[in-house]
Amino acid sequence: MKLSSLRYVVPEPFISLRRNAGMTLAAVMTVVLTLYLCGIFALLVSNINRNTQLLEAAVEIKVFIEDGINQDQMDTLSAQVRGIEGVASIKFVSRAEGLEQMSSKFGSSEEILAAIDTNPLPNSYTIKAESPDQVLDIVEKVSRLPNVQAVRYGQGSIEKMFVFMNWVRTLGLGLMVLLGFSAVILISMNIRLSVEARKEEIQVMKYVGASNSFIVWPFILEGMLLGILGGGIACILVLLSYNAVLNLILSSLNFLTFVPLGEIAFLLISGMLLIGLLLGAIGSAIAVRKHVNV
Questions:
Q1: 235: alpha, beta or left, given left = phi > 0 and alpha = psi -120 to 50?
Q2: Which of 106, 193, 219, 223 has the lowest tally of Cβ within 10 angstroms?
Q3: Interval 66-113: pLDDT, tens
Q4: Is this structure's pTM higher than 0.70?
Q5: What ranges do the domains of the chain cover?
Q6: What fold, for 60-153?
Q7: What was the pLDDT predicted at 130?
C-alpha cells in the first residue's frame, strides 16, 4: 500500500470510532468482559494444574505385606512389584519405620501410640508411579500378587481430582466461546454502522478506481483497534484481580501453591491481546464481507 494511501487508511478507524461512540463502547466492553473471563479462567486452570501436579507427585501406593513370610518370599515380591509397568520406585518400610512415621504425624498425641503394647503395623512397600494415570493399573496388578495383605493409595481422591479438572476446563471453554461469539457479533455490528454511514463515499471511491484493500482496510483496522483496546483494559483488570484474590486466599488457605504472576504475565498479556486482535479482525471481516460489495 502506498504512503499516500496510508495517510487516509490509518486515521479513518479513529474517526469512525468517535462517530459511533455508543456502539464502540458496547463493543469494547463486550471484548473486555470476554477477555477478562478468559484471563481469569486461564489463571484458574494454571493454578489448578500446578496444585494437581504437586498432589500427583505426592501420590504414593502403600503395599502392606502379610506377616510370617520369609526373606526369599519378600525378595520375590519385591522383584514382582519392580517388574510392573509404570513403577518408578519402590521402598521397603519395616514395621518399626512405619510406627515411627505414624508417631511423627501424631505430633503432640504421641501418648496414644505410647499406650500401644505391640506394633500393629505390618511391613510394607511404598511405590511411586511414573505417571498418575498408571496408579490404578499398578494397584490392580499389585493386589493380585501373593503375600500382599492390602493396597492403599487414597482411593477416590485421584478420580475426583481429574473429574474436577475436566469440569473446570469444559465450563471455562464453553463460556469463553459464548462470550467470544458475542464480542464478534457486537464488533461486526459496530463496523456495519461505519459501512452504512459511508456507503455513498465507498461507492464514489469505487467509481474512481479505488482498490479493494484501500476500501476494506480502514474497517479491518477499526475492528482490530476495538479488540486491542478491549484486550488492554481486560489485561489490567485481570492482573489487578489476581493479586487481590491471591492475597485474600493466601490469608486463609496458605497450604495451597499458586503460580507467581511474573511467571505467566507475559504469556497471559500477549495471549489476551492476540485474542482481542483476532476477535476484532473476524468481526470486521464478517461486516465487510456482508455489507461492502468489493
A1: alpha
A2: 106
A3: 888 888 888 888 899 888 988 888 888 887 777 676 666 655 445 555
A4: no
A5: 3-55+159-291, 60-153
A6: Alpha-Beta Plaits (3.30.70)
A7: 80
